[in-house]
């Protein structure tokens, strides 16, 4: 089983980057009063919190299966479920941002559309990774390890693109409004805990 160990570690490291993604959804504190924007931020944050927990659990499952001596079959099964959960979660976050409408800021509509497009794209990428994991050959240790390596590389790219998309949505007042929402703070704190 030693053959897949280093690759598993790489996969776990790449995945923990994925958790950061939703946690971009926190911004930094501010106290401007904008009721419309606060109401928008509350709607998004409340919807994001359960999804952030789902992504966190998926990350934890992968970290666990990659840190013990799991069989390739177990790794495959756990990773496939985790990627599916992440795909569903990002789709739900995209849906929540769509439902909330454009934030009441300059270029709000463009920011909203760009973020939704990116979230849906991330969701599709995770669905694709699930398919790749499902297709891996667990009988051949070497091939399985190589397949995981490719998946880890894609995960690295994925976590970066997600951060960029959400950072854009959360510039300025939007980020400040989100930072004031208890549900966004809770989502950040729970994910922050998994980062250490």
The low-confidence runs, each spanning 5 or more residues with pLDDT under 50, are: 26-31, 192-196
- Separate helix tally: 7
Give the SSE order as H and E letters.
HHHHHHH
Total strand count, please?
A: 0
Quaternary: single chain
* Global shape: elongated
How helix-rich are the residues, as a percent range? over 70%
Strand content: under 5%
The biggest beta sheet is recorded as: none
Mean pLDDT reading: 79
Rg on CA atoms, Å: 18 Å
Structure class: mainly alpha
Distance between the termini: 27 Å
Features of the shown structure:
single chain; 196 residues; mainly alpha; 7 helices; 81% helix; elongated; disordered C terminus
Question: What do you see in this structure?
Answer:
The protein has 196 residues and is an all-alpha fold. The protein is built from 7 helices and no strands. α1 packs antiparallel against α7 and α2 crosses α6.
């Amino acid at each position: 089983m030693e053959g897949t160990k280093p690759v598993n570690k790489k996969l776990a490291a790449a995945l923990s980057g994925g958790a950061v993604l939703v946690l971009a959804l926190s911004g930094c504190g501010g106290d401007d009063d904008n009721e419309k924007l606060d109401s928008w931020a509350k709607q998004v944050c409340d919807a994001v919190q359960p999804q952030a927990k789902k992504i966190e659990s998926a990350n934890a499952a992968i970290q666990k299966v990659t840190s013990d001596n799991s069989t390739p079959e177990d790794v495959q099964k756990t990773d496939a479920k985790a990627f599916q959960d992440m795909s569903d979660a990002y789709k739900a976050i995209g849906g929540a941002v769509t439902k909330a409408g454009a934030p009441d800021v300059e270029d709000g509509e463009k920011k909203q559309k760009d973020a939704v497009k990116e979230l849906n794209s991330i969701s599709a990428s995770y669905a694709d990774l699930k398919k790749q994991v499902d297709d891996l050959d667990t009988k051949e240790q070497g091939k399985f390890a190589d397949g995981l390596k490719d998946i880890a590389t894609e995960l690295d790219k994925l976590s970066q693109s997600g951060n960029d998309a959400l950072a854009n949505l959360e510039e300025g007042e939007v980020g400040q409004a989100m930072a004031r929402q208890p549900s966004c703070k809770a989502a950040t704190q729970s994910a922050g805990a998994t980062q250490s």
